[in-house]
């Protein structure tokens, strides 16, 4: 009784209940007397494989061989040998009978015979996969025989398992033993548990137990024969039942047949060494084996080899077995990119392979690597991420974009490379909807404020288009303070005609955000003057915009007359989303080639598509203006605008994040940073009309200052719009950009929302850069005259 209780206590402490793994369903097949179970870790649910072997008592021969297998598997480590995790032995009692069970826990694997049925490969893809698997097993056998001087003794289809990444691995080490060929005088068995091996798998000398011959043979003789048996079972699709079946070579590939015959040579000394099989066999020279081998030794390759390989990989991946690409190549590629061993072109291959995954798998296998790559300092990697952001941007969560991705992407706004600034700008169309209001108002809009006066006209144009497209993601206060200033003060006055056209289209696309007063006093006056723009496309856009905004004003008028003032400001206006879609599509239409000549040049590079609309134009009618322009006949002699030194967006953004930059220049109100060349007479007239303050009609004041009156009269004489221009400002009005703090100029429509501009002492203006009616005695002019006079003297 005491012995029974002792046995129960001893068994319960080490039994399966104490095993830190859950035992699941068994597979239909396994090697020898073992049972192969699926399993999971009790800690984190990680999948594992659990092998169990039971015997009637502790001295059972199968259990002794099993203990040998556990010991060998624990101590022998190789990439192509099954990875050992844990083992235990438990005793259980059923009445008077004792049952002993050995458990081995390994990485999650599946019997090769079951995996072959699951994959269902055929033809060339099947042969390539078999070649890769045999290559792995041959290397494992070579390691045991040549490096460790061990004999596996039972190589067959049953002794091979497949991992989750479809790697073939060797296991079943119960028979494994040292090769004692130096002890030729010994007559005892070299393989203590060779009786576990079926007779059909034994070579002649082992079948006869001729240990003297075995010891005189090379260490690989027995296992080379086993490799031959594995090859037969693999290609015939049948389990070997008797040795004579090995003579049937009909299913063996012709390129492998000579090596197969040498592996099964009747003379042990003439059998092919598995290392020679790996090195010299023609069968292993195929695309799949070469591709995986290159990826595994990537760190040993130089930059030229890497670049060449990764540029070919996207096309090569389409020719390889899809399951192997997704389960083997994709993890290798993601790992090499994450740790910096892969070149930038590898990103294209990663995204292409990722497109073959389901959305759930893409989020777990590819997205984590992409998010980590945003922190890379490699400019080529950053360019690749931005170029392909449309392929994965929708899969990024708002939290990941706002907290992990945006801060790295935003560095591209200030990059010295115009191409990278352009790509960063385009990426915002995908990322901006996922940003918080704090990030948009506190960071993004400040970057866009700088980009709207970028030296590249294409970037200025696309910035305007982007603002029109993301207007719906801004809060109401920010929209009121940013959009009109961005479109009228900067975009409509840009020297680059596509930028002016983009400003008109952006105003139309965001028309639902403006009230009637803003339309009548700030938008229409600025658009009307563009109806005589030198560029025909800008003119056509201006006419369309005038019609659209006049219709809004007419609707307001009709509702006011009928006494219905509810929704009068925006009544009858399509939704913002509808206008946004129309604005984007209108920017993609092609135009007449004859009108493209003035902008394009021989040195111009690839067009910059506005707002990621996959277009090469920023126009919606007759003419097409390439947006990515590096040089042009129209702007060849015009100095590029200089980016402002201010970092505070378009005026004070109403987001509660005032950063105390009152002394800095307002990004929207100040357009003096644009170093515009002297425009053509017609464009100068338009700009002069744009710069004239718009005010409500008031009684004329007779006591105007004489000098200002003369200046205004002269301007009206030269101004084509003199007959219909707004009345001259009152004498009490101050010149533009000379506003005193704490006061609001009634004649300046931007005064209420714009930050105070610096005085001329803070930043002297260049000649001809004034806006609106200039003071008669210009201090700047006088200084220049004095310098000229002094130099003359």
From TrEMBL:
Keywords: Kinase, Transferase. Residues 4-284 form the Protein kinase domain. HEAT repeats lie at residues 523-561. Residues 613-635, 697-712, 730-743 have a biased composition (Polar residues). Transmembrane segments: none annotated. Residues 655-668 have a biased composition (Basic and acidic residues). Signal peptide: none annotated. GO terms for molecular function: ATP binding; protein kinase activity. The keyword Nucleotide-binding does not apply. Residues 613-793 are annotated as: Disordered. This is Inactive serine/threonine-protein kinase scy1. It comes from Actinidia chinensis var. chinensis (Chinese soft-hair kiwi). The lineage of its organism: Eukaryota, Viridiplantae, Streptophyta, Embryophyta, Tracheophyta.
């Amino acid at each position: 009784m005491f012995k029974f209780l002792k046995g129960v206590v001893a068994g319960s402490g080490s039994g399966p209940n104490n095993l830190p793994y859950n035992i699941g369903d068994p597979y239909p097949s396994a090697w020898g007397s073992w049972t192969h179970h699926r399993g999971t870790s009790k800690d984190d649910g990680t999948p594992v494989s659990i092998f169990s072997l039971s015997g009637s008592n502790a001295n059972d021969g199968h259990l002794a061989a099993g203990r040998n297998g556990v010991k060998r598997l624990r101590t022998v480590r190789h990439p192509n040998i099954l990875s050992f995790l844990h083992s235990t032995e438990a005793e259980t009692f059923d009445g008077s009978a004792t049952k002993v069970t050995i458990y081995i826990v390994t990485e999650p694997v599946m019997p090769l015979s079951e995996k072959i049925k699951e994959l269902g490969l055929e033809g060339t893809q099947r042969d390539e996969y078999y070649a890769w698997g045999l290559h792995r097993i041959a290397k494992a056998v070579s390691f045991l025989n040549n490096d460790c001087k061990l004999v596996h003794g039972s190589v067959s289809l049953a002794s091979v398992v497949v991992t989750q990444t479809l790697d073939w691995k060797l296991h079943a080490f119960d028979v494994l033993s040292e090769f004692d060929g130096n002890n030729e005088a010994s007559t005892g068995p070299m393989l203590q548990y060779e009786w576990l091996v079926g007779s059909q798998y034994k070579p002649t000398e082992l079948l006869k137990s001729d240990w003297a011959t075995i010891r005189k043979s090379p260490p690989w003789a027995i296992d080379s024969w086993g490799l031959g048996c594995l090859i037969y079972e693999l290609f015939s699709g049948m389990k070997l039942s008797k040795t004579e079946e090995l003579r049937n070579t009909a299913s063996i590939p012709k390129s492998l047949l000579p090596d197969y015959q040498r592996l099964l040579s009747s003379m042990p000394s003439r059998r092919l060494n598995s290392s020679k099989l790996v090195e010299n066999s023609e069968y292993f020279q195929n695309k799949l084996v070469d591709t995986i081998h290159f990826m595994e030794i990537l760190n040993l390759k130089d930059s030229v080899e890497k670049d060449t390989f990764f540029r070919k990989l996207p096309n090569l991946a389409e020719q390889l077995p899809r399951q192997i690409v997704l389960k083997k190549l994709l993890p290798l590629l993601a790992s090499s990119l994450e740790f910096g061993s892969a070149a930038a072109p590898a990103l294209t291959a990663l995204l292409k392979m990722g497109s073959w995954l389901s959305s759930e798998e893409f989020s777990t296998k590819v997205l984590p690597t992409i998010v980590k790559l945003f922190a890379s300092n490699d400019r080529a990697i950053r360019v690749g991420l931005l170029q392909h952001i449309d392929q994965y941007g929708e899969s990024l969560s708002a939290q990941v974009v706002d907290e992990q991705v945006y801060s790295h992407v935003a560095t591209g706004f200030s990059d010295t490379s115009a191409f990278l600034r352009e790509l960063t700008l385009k990426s915002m169309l995908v990322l901006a909807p996922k940003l918080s209001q704090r990030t948009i108002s506190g960071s993004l809009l400040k970057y866009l404020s700088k980009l709207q006066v970028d030296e590249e006209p294409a970037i200025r144009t696309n910035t305007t288009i982007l603002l029109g497209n993301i207007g719906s993601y801004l809060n109401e206060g920010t929209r009121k303070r940013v959009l009109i200033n961005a479109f009228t003060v900067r975009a409509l006055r840009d020297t680059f005609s596509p930028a002016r056209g983009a400003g008109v289209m952006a105003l139309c696309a965001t028309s639902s955000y403006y009230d009637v007063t803003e339309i009548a006093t700030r938008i229409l006056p600025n658009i009307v003057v563009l109806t005589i723009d030198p560029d025909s496309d800008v003119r056509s856009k201006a006419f369309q915009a005038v019609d659209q905004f006049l219709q809004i004003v007419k609707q307001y008028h009709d509702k006011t007359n009928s006494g219905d003032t509810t929704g009068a400001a925006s009544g009858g206006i399509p939704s913002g989303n509808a206008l946004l879609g129309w604005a984007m599509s209108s920017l993609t239409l092609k135009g007449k080639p004859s009108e493209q000549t003035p902008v394009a040049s021989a040195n111009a590079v690839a067009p910059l598509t506005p707002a990621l609309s996959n277009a090469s134009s920023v126009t919606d009618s007759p003419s097409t203006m390439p947006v990515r322009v590096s040089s042009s006949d129209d702007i060849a002699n015009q100095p590029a605008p200089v980016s402002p030194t201010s970092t505070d967006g378009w005026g004070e953004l109403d987001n509660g994040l005032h950063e105390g930059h009152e002394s800095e220049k307002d990004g929207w109100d100040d357009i003096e940073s644009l170093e515009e060349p002297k425009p053509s007479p017609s464009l100068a007239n338009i700009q002069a009309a744009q710069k004239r303050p718009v005010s409500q009609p008031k009684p004329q004041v007779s006591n105007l200052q004489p000098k200002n009156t003369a200046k205004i009269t002269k301007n009206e004489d030269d101004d084509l719009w003199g007959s219909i221009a707004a009345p001259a400002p009152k004498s009490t009005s101050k010149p533009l950009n000379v506003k005193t703090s704490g006061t609001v100029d009634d004649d300046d429509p931007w005064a209420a929302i714009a930050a105070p501009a610096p005085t001329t002492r803070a930043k002297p203006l260049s000649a001809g850069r004034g806006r609106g009616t200039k003071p008669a005695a210009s201090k700047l002019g006088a200084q220049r005259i004095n310098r000229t006079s002094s130099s003359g003297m």
